[in-house]
Amino acid sequence: MDVDTASDNTSIDDKIDDFCENPTRDALTEGLMSLLKPTVDQLDERIRATRICQIELKQRIESLSEDLQMINEALQCPLEIDSYIKKLINAKRKITIVGNILQSTQDVLNKMHQGVEKNTAKRKALLDHSSLYSNTSNITDKEEQVEVEKEADPAKDPQV
Asked: Distance (Å, rounded) from C-alpha 57 to C-alpha 1?
């Protein structure tokens, strides 16, 4: 007998039935999802607003830096504004770093949001799938029940 055909092999399909029939787990998952989703959405929106402010600040610093550079060139005087220009350039660099951190954080949040949506869709599909099985439990003839299951999910066909 092949290792692949041994009866002790398990798959996720074997465990789906156990997963769908646990109302406590379903209620807990739904509760956690309803608690986390607004927080993730709110955090995502605040990061967007912060990134917009960071971009505006960066543009203003660049404009100010250019203006100071033009003043410095126009005056041709020994005023020591180079140190201030360096400070502005350092501030601009730090803002760029913070912007990159915010972007990566927003990317992580977007992935989490997509995962939440995917998980929700998967759970709905599993619940719909489990309701299909509960509707077929009234069939007394075993052959009719097997046919209904084959129609519902051809991947579970033992002959395939």
From this structure: 70
